[in-house]
Amino acid sequence: MEVVLGPFGMQSPHPYRRSHADMYEDLITTAQKAEEFGYDGIALTEHSFWYDGYCPSLQPTLASVAQHTSRIKLVTGALLLPQHDPLKVAEEAAVLDRLSHGRLVLGLGVGYRPEEFHGHGVEIGRMGARFLEAYEVVRRALTQETFSYEGEFYQYHNVSLKTRPWQQEIPMWVCAGFTEWSIKAAARRGWSYCTTGDMDGGGAIFQRYDEFAESFGHPPEKLKRALFRDVFVMPTQEEADIIMEQDYWAAMNDQFFGFGFLREKNPDGSQMTEVPPPMKEMMLNNRLARPRGTPAMVREHLAPILDWNIDMLIARMNWANFTLERGLRSAEVFARDVMPMLRQTTVEKQTFEGPAQ
Amino acid sequence: MRVGLLYSLGPDCNYDVALEQIEEADRLGLNSVLFEEHHGDLGCPAIMPLIAAAASRTKTIRVGSSNRQLCLEYPINGAEDYAVIDQISRGRVVAGVSAGEREQEFQAAGVPWSEREGRFGEALELLRTVWSQSNVSFVGEHYRFPLHAQGEPGWQREPYKPPFVDQWRRGQIIPEHLPLLPQPLQWPHPPMWVNATSEAIIQLAGSKGYSLLISPLETETEVRAKIDLYDRALGQAGRDRNEVEVALCRELFMDTDGDVARDRALPALRSRIEQLRPQAGEDQSGLAVIRGLSDEELLNQCALYGNHDDLLPRLLSLKAEAGINHLICRTSLPGLNPLDVMHSIRLIASSLHSRLQA
Q: Sign of dihedral through CA atoms B262, B263, B266, B272?
C-alpha cells in the first residue's frame, strides 16, 4: 500500500501562533523530508474562514510543493468540492498535474461546516447531492475530450478542457467518513473510497463498501480503498501519552468539539458543551483506531489493516499545535520502523495473487 | 518604468521551460511575471497553480495573474487563492483581473455575459473588502458574502458588540459576518490591476483607484486614448497617478543584432496573430484591435522587436509621453527557440531594464 504523510492543514491557532509565510515554507521542507524518508505522498486538507488560517486553497499550495520535490504524490485530502466551481477544480487539476509531471491525486470531500458553504455562496442543504454532481463533472472534464452534463446544480454543454492532465486518469477519491449514504453512493458509481475510519478502525466500512459494490455490479477487487489514520511514533509509550494528552487533546478539543461540530445532546435535549469523559478516553486511548506509542505498539495495531486491501494509507502525525520538528521526528521513525511492514505485504500480495487486475 | 514578463501557456507549452526563464528573470532583477488565463487553445485555463509555482521558485520578482476572469465563478475562491499565494510568495502577488473577454467562456460557466461589468465592479469591491477587513458582510446585486448576509447594500464590519454566541454553538449558527483567512500578507491588500477591456471598465478602474493593465496588440494611438480616459477618471475622483500602476503588455523580442531579431521575431509574431484572428469576435469589440488591422499594421504598431537602438526610443516615448510605468513583455512567442527567448530576456534585463528604470 502507498503511505502518504498528512494531511496538513497549515493552521496557526492562538495557543501556537506562527507566520503563515513561514508555515508554507516549512511545508516544502516537510515534503522534501517525506520524500527522503520514503513516503509516497504528502496530503493537504482544507477549510475556509477558520480562525487559525486553515489553508483554503489546496491546488496552488501543492503547486509550490511540486517545485521542490520530484517523486512524491501530491494529495488533496480532502478538497471540499461543493464549495468550489467544479470546472475550475478540473482545470486547476489539469494544470497542476502537468506542473508536477503526473503526481496529483485528487481526494474530494463534501465538508460539514455551515459557515464554509455560506461563505462560498452555496446553501449547505443537500450538500451530498451537490457533491455527487460536482464529482461527476470533474471526472468527465478530466477524462473526456468534450463533455456535457445535465444536473440539478450544474449544467455544461459541450465543454472541453484543452489543457489535458499529464496522467491518463488522475486518481480520484471520495474522501468521507462512515455514513451509510456516502459508502453507498461511492460504491454505486464504482468510485474509490477513502474513509476516516470509525471507532473500530474502519474494517467494517470497507466491508460495507464491498457489499454495496457487489450489489451494484462492481467487482470489489477492482475498487480502490484508502484510509486516514491518526498515528504517532515515539521512543516510549509514556512520551507519546503525554504528548497526546497535553497537545493532541488540546487541539482536538479546541478545533473540533469546541465549536459544536459534534452535535451531541444531553439527555434533556440541550447541546452538550463539554466532551463526555468516555469520548475523551476513546479519542486518546483507542489504540485500534489511533495507534500512538512505540513503533512496536503501532505496528501491532496497524497490522489488521493489512487484510483490508487498502491502496493508500494517509498517516496523520501533525496537529495544529505540533512543532515541525516533532512531526518530522515521528514521521522519520514511522518510515523506518513501521513502513517496512506495510510495504512488505504489498509485495507479498502481488507475488501470491499475481499481477493486480 | 518597471519591466516584467507575460506568459500564456497553452496546452502544448512546457511549463518547466517557462519556469526556468522566470527563475532567470528573478535572478536578473526583472520586476514581475504575469500569467494569462485563457480557456481554450491559446492559454492556460487555471493560472493559480502556475503563479504559486513561480512564487515558490523565486525570491524578489512579483508574481501574479494578468487577467483572472473574476466573474466566471464566485469571487471568494479567487480571493482565497490570491491570499494563500501572497503568503507563499511573502507578499509578492499582483492580482491582475479582467471583467471577461469571451462570451463562450461565460456560456460554459453559466454566467450571463451581459452582466459581466456589473458583476466585475462588485467582485472587485468584494475582494478588496475581504482582503483588508477583518470580519465582514457584503451585500450586492449579484454577490452576497456570506450567503445570508443581511442589511443595506455595500460592505459592513461585524458590529463592535456582536450578539453573544456560546462557543460550542459557533459551528452551528448561520453566520452574517465572516473573515477571509489567511489574510494576504500585503497591506491593505495585493495590488489590483484591472484589464482595460472597455470604456466603462477603464472609468471604473480610474474612479476607484485600481491600476490599469492594457493588453498587447493595441496600437499606440489606442493605448494613448485609453490612458487619457483613465487619467481623466483618476482626476475626477481626486486621485493621483502615484497611487497606481499603468502597465502595458507588449509582444517583445530582442537580440543584439537588429536583423537577427527581425528574422526570428517576424514569423513568430505572424503565427501569434494567425492564432488570435479567429478569436476576435463581436464580443471583443472593446478589447481586441485585431479586426480591421492588417498584419503589417499590427506588426508595426504593436509588436516590439529589434536591438537596443530600435527598442529603447520607442519605449522611452511610451514612458514619457503615455506615462506607462510598467512594461510587461511577452517574450515566449510560438515557434521561438527557448534559448533565443532566454537570450532575449537576458538582454531586456541587462540593457533595457536599467535604462527604463532610471
A: negative
Enumerate the domain spans of chain A.
2-353
Tell me the nearest-neighbour CA distance from A112 into chain B, angstroms: 9
User: What CA–CA distance (Å, rounded) separates A85 from A92?
Assistant: 11
Query: Going by C-beta distance under 8 Å and a sequence separation of 6 or more, which residues neighbour residue A69?
Result: A31, A32, A35, A42
**What residues does A107 pair with on adjacent strands?**
A173
Residue A200 to chain B, least CA–CA distance (Å): 27
- Answer left, alpha or beta for residue A142, where phi above 0 means left and psi between -120 and 50 means alpha: alpha
Interchain CB distance below 8 Å, B169 and A67: no
Task: Number of A to B CB contacts under 8 A, please give it.
Answer: 185
Domains of chain B: 2-134+179-259+280-337 (3.20.20.30)
Q: Is the ipTM of this complex over 0.85?
A: yes
Contacts of B171 in chain A (CB under 8 A): 113-115, 259-261
Cβ separation of B88 and A21 shorter than 8 Å?
yes
Cross-chain Cβ contact B45/A162 below 8 Å: yes
The answer to whether the CB atoms of B178 and A119 lie below 8 A apart is: yes
Residue A88: closest C-alpha in chain B:
B46
Whether residues A49 and B83 touch (CB distance < 8 A) is answered with no
| Contacts (Cβ under 8 Å, ≥6 apart) of B104 | none
Residues ≥6 apart with Cβ < 8 Å to B23: B57, B58
Q: How far is B41 from chain A (nearest CA, A)?
A: 6
Min Cα distance B139 → chain A (Å) is: 12
Per-residue pLDDT of chain A (357 residues; tens, 9 = 90+): 999 998 999 999 888 899 999 999 999 999 999 999 999 999 999 999 998 999 999 999 999 999 999 999 999 989 999 999 999 999 999 999 999 999 999 999 999 888 899 999 999 989 999 999 999 999 999 999 999 999 999 999 999 999 999 999 999 999 998 889 999 999 999 999 999 988 777 889 999 999 999 999 999 999 999 999 999 999 999 999 999 999 999 888 887 776 766 667 788 887 777 788 888 888 888 888 889 999 999 999 999 999 999 999 999 999 988 988 999 999 999 999 999 999 875 545 444 444 444
Comparing CB atoms, the residue among A66, A88, A121 nearest residue B144 is A121
Strands B136-139 vs B154-157: parallel, antiparallel or unpaired: antiparallel
CATH numeric code, A2-353: 3.20.20.30
B44 to chain A: closest CA residue: A163
